[in-house]
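Quick board copy: two proteins, each given as sequence then tokens.
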Amino acid sequence: MKAIFLRVGERTAAGYPLELFEGEQDALLERIEGDNAADALETIPLNAEGTGPDLGAGAIRLSTILDLISGHEIEGASLTGAGTLLFGLLNRGAVGKRWLGALKNAKKQWYALRPEQQLTAGVQLRTYLDVRDPYLARLPWELVRDEGDMLALHQWAPLTRYSSSTPAARREDLELRVLLVIGCHPKAAVGIAWVDELRSFLTSVCRQRDAIDFEVFEAFNEARDPRAAVTLKGELRQAIATFRPHVLHFVGHGRSEGGTGALELFDFKANDVVPWTSQELKNWLEATPPAVVLLNACRTSEAAADPEAAIAALASMTGAALGANVGCVVSMQHDIEGEAAAHFAEGFYETLARRQAVDVAVINGRKRIADAFPYENRNWALPVCTVSAPPETLLPARDRISPQRLTEVQSHPDIAPLLSFVDRRRERRTIIHPTVDALNRNVAFVVSETKMGKSSLARVIARWRWLTEQRVVYVDFGIETPQRAPRDVIEILRHMRGRDEASGDILRPNIHRAFGAFHDAVNAILDDKPLGAIPASGIDKGLLLDRNKVTSARAWDVVFDGFLSGLKSLAKERPMTLVLDHLTKLGAGVVPDDFKEHIVKRLIQPIHRGDVAGVTMVVAATANEIDQCGLTALRTSSVGVSLGNFAFEHWELLAREFVVREGMESIIAEETIRKYTPLLNEKPWKPRWFLRLKEDYEEFVGTRE
């Protein structure tokens, strides 16, 4: 991809040196780090006083541009005029000629594409802007415009600020992980609409469930013991280290602290704000730097009283993040309205979910703002994107999940409803991405009492395994049995295998014919003959078996050897996950006596030991079911999670996520959520409260209609 690199040096007696480098992006960024000569060189002359650049006769002052971007209305000044003036500073002589020529070619290439091609097309030309003069660096270069072309709003030729820091290597994960930190007081009323921004964030990421994994850290609302020694900042630091986000997004206030910048965290225990300083930010991120840090934090009275001081304070936070090897920092030049921030989040995360470049995501966020506000409203120009590497190289690629599989899983009747399944994110990660090496990973357990969502979590895990190209066999003993629950071991195995006439789908593929050896073993027992004495047909006759006929350990060995050989043959094609759910439905609520002796000993334990290569298992059950089935010892040594009630402090956050996933109208839903808050009486609550919330909402909407 072609790129232009513009560098504005610090002021000298002659003016500001302006250098242009041009070439293929990767080679260009290597070239500008050395002492290589520029492809074009000009000087931005000083004004008569020698205090700044010469803007020409009758032009507005640079301080006026800063006033405009800070929200002041200046007679005779406009954002359009400011953008044209800033463009003129860069459009000089040989530099301007080469830059305009490259922009013209990029525009021509872009508009030669069909509209549907433009949706997925990459950047045609990227302009990197490295302004090293401290005063000029504070200017809102995002306003730059060449007549009608506003580069901050054009995907085909973005203008992106550049820092020479070194980004961390890209982490190749299937999911994009986003940590949203809400630092403000829950009832913040001045200049911040964090609930709207949270809702927009949830709307964006919930639509992209298969692409984005997220956590929300509410500084004011962490469900922690007030007597605990761990501080709020300690918890946040641990959350960053544990979750290892690709994107760290802060919503709240910023301020100066000890001559440098700081973010404010409202501490619920102390009932006061504590500063998250730029040095702390750098220290916390250095171990596992995010690819992107989004700071929506220039929201203080200080910003209104002293815009330049506020910019400098936030710049120190940007510098701290870049100094921690973060590849991209997106910050707000001034106080952005809550509605505008919400629009920005929508466009930003929808673009990231498609794995497009970070600066393109920023552009699409700006576009959402520009669509909702008049152009002369400054909100669209407030997001600033600073990178230290090609933006498309910062976030994990998405090519390991095929679009076809995504389409199939999102339309599946048993899986699509899982989009309403909220939270349990940490438990899901424990199973999907286990980190405790001492625990066995071949068999995982999802344990809870009834009506806690363990079956839904098991299906979420199955869904993820299928998306990662595994074969998934979801065996639900409580739903799928057509006539009655299997009452003996052979019937249980048959039920796991499935019926030959089954059409097969994502969760229940037709694998019947892989079990020929198992069928032959069962047929030999049915015919009361030794294996090998009858022709090998590989076809299950389907007759019920008198379990008293299987009297020898050898006969059971042959049956299970046949079943395991079927699993092994399937796993040779691709890895396989077997999910077992509702175990007490195995025998009309009573587990068959020989389940422990045969299913556990001859099937589950071999999988647990790793004897069945390529096959893993997930068991969803109550603790009582685990005990009845003789799985307690295996559970102790295996990866597993226990689901309990939700903490009262998380009610409003999770309820907001639920209503977003259900597509409920925001104002009515918010009123309904707050109606239920006192009813919970500060006690833990079960998932069924979501259903009560939905029923109440639907009743209200029906009454209104």
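And the next:
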Amino acid sequence: MLNFRHEDNTVIAVLQDYITNEVLMVGNMNREALVKTLTTGYVHFWSLSRKKIWLKGETSKNFQIVEEIRIDCDADAILIKVKPLGPTCHTGNRSCFYRSHYDIVNSKS
């Protein structure tokens, strides 16, 4: 059983490429988003800002097909191994983790 304990009754969901093990993105899932993910085989998230479920790839068609789901030791985060159908990041990058710590250190803002 998952521990939906965060402020919005969500768990952290980490997406990882099933083949390369590259971390692709992090999002939030409530119980309903998790059920939709399990029943459809496509990753759904809970939007904290819009307060609604969204299908990853709904607009871009870069869907994330679920291959495996793992639960962490505290049952408050999940790792979803996926087959990405295109770039995962809304910027067009394969992963949302395309910047290094040097980008932060060298940033003028």
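Board note added afterward: The longest helix spans residues 31-40.
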